Structures are given as structure tokens and as C-alpha cells.
Amino acid sequence: MAISVAQAKTIPQTHHIDPHANSVIGTLADGDPNDLFTPQQVAGYLRVTISWLSVARSKGFGPPFIKVGPHMIRYRRRDILKWLQSRVTHRKTQQRRR
Questions:
Q1: 8 Å CB contact between 15 and 87
Q2: If we measure between CA atoms, which residue out of 90, 89, 66 comes closest to residue 77?
Q3: Confidence at residue 97, expressed as pLDDT on a 0 to 100 scale
Q4: What is the pLDDT confidence band of residue 96, given thresholds at 50, 70 and 90?
Q5: How many folded domains does the chain comprise?
Q6: What is the CATH number of the domain that holds 38?
Q7: Is residue 6 part of a domain?
Q8: Which domain holds residue 34?
Q9: Could you tell me if residue 29 is left (phi over 0), alpha (psi between -120 and 50 degrees) or otherwise beta?
Q10: Theoretical Cys-Cys bridge with 83: which of 47, 58, 63, 77, CB 3.0 to 4.6 Å?
Q11: pLDDT in tens, 40-50
Q12: Are 37 and 75 in contact (CB under 8 A)?
């Protein structure tokens, strides 16, 4: 799905999730890749609010989701893991210069 220039400006380059993405991957890695999670479960794993997930869905910067009914959103384990792997930061924290 292509995004517009206006949408690209609203997508954050980094998330507060990034520093702990590896630990969440470790927690979620075991299990069937097709397991489905509720927004409440995903919010708990990611340490975000359900509101944050809702905004992330509407603006296109959160984990991929599945709409299984008019008011029923689910997240597939493999999609969450893939999204988290894209969020892992590989660079060392830069020390402040004094």
C-alpha cells in the first residue's frame, strides 16, 4: 500500500518501542506464527496504550492488522514480529558530548 506525502510526514521515524523491540521479539517468538492477538494483548506486549495502537492503525505506522469484523481488529504473531524486527535499533547509543 503506497502512502501519500502528507501521510509520510506524520509517520514517526523512531518509536519509543524501538529500544525494547528485541525483548518483545524474544517474548513473542515462541508460538504459532498464525496466532491472532487482540489490541489489548498487543498493547500489553508493546507497552503502549490501546489508543496508541488505534492512532498507529489509522496513520499507517503501527504493526499490520487484520479486520475480522466490523469492530474486531486482530494482529497476527508473524506480522507483529516482522514489524518489530524492522524497529530494532542496531546502532549504539551515542554519548553526549560535553
A1: yes
A2: 66
A3: 45
A4: very low
A5: 1
A6: 1.10.10
A7: no
A8: 15-87
A9: alpha
A10: 63
A11: 999 999 989 99
A12: yes
State the Cα–Cα distance between residues 19 and 82, nearest whole angstrom. Answer: 16
Average per-residue pLDDT in the chain? Answer: 81
Greatest mean pLDDT range, 10-14, 62-66, 87-91, 92-96: 62-66
In a domain, 3, yes or no: no
DSSP string, the chain: ----HHHHHHS-SS-TTGGGHHHHHHHHSSS-TT-EE-HHHHHHHHT--HHHHHHHHHHT-S---EEEETTEEEEEHHHHHHHHHHH---SPPPPPP-
Q: Which three cell numbers stand for residue 13?
A: 521515524
Q: What does the pLDDT read at residue 12?
A: 56
60 to 26, 53, 93: CA distances (angstroms): 24, 10, 27
Q: Find out whether 27 and 45 touch, Cβ atoms under 8 Å.
A: yes
pLDDT at res. 20: 73
Measured CA angle at 82 (ends 86, 8), to 5 deg: 50
